[in-house]
Amino acid sequence: MSGSLVRGPMPSLGSPALAAASTGASGARVLDFRRRGAPPRRRRRNPLLQLARPLAAALLLVLLPLGLAAWVLTSRRFQLAEVVVEGGTERIKADWVRQALAPFEGRNLVVLPLSEAAEALHKNPWVQTVELQKELPGRLRVALTERRPTALLRGAGGLVYADPDGKPIVPVDSLPDAHKAGLLEVFFSRPVPGGVASALDVAGELGRVRPDWAAALTRIDVLGEEDFCLHTDALPFPLLVTRGQVGPKARRLEELLPELERRYPVIEAVDLRFSRRIVVQPGAPARAGAEPGARSQHISERVQAWPNQNLTS
Predict the structure, then answer these.
(1) Is the dihedral of CA 286, 289, 290, 293 positive or negative?
(2) What mean pLDDT, rounded, does the chain reach?
(3) What is the homologous superfamily of the domain 76-146 according to CATH?
(4) Per-residue confidence (pLDDT) for residue 180, from 0 to 100
């Protein structure tokens, strides 16, 4: 075969020149044998492997706290080993607090119910409030307040210490020590709400006018919500007073004392509860050997009947 060689750029497959050359003189057609590349096959992942990672993360989130909780609840590191008592009071010693909480030693402090520990401390009648604080890993801090006795209550069983609300605390074991502490004996002829606090208020009223009479007070009888009978060693007779009127009546009685002593050799009681007069109850001479306590009890029993008697003014 012979022919000319044409040099130059190869025409594109879709160009008219190539199409004309491909037909030639014989009319034959040259087909385009270039094939498009087939897309690569993608490998499908196993669905179980796709769920493995989130499942492992969720399992870790669950097992880690459970394992930590199990370690905390079973480790000896979190057992109660030390009880720290802040302060302590005169009647509630720190050694008593530790002894009361001794049954809780060795228990897991994390799950230890503080209510049970507080209940064990409240068995002491002198305990008023309890504050408990856990200090991990093994320390319990205790802070207590003591009930403050403000008076002595006389009942069927004898004298007991009483708080400002009039609630009994414990029996009095030493009356001289109680009087030395400045505690007054309060007697109720019938239940009166807030009687102890009212009796102490009346004692304060007397102290602002006659401190010497108030300092010698030994007993206050609560006759009602507003009426009281004051027993003081500074006077040979008790005083019947009304709350809120003690000051003016005590001043008037102080002025009349010389006359009363001249007119009445023995005075059983003086009533200052009336608005315009002072009522004096004369008494019979005391019998030899009569006890002062019995005489005071006798006076308290007669006070309720006085308004029905003819009293000397």
Answers:
(1) positive
(2) 80
(3) membrane protein fhac (3.10.20.310)
(4) 81
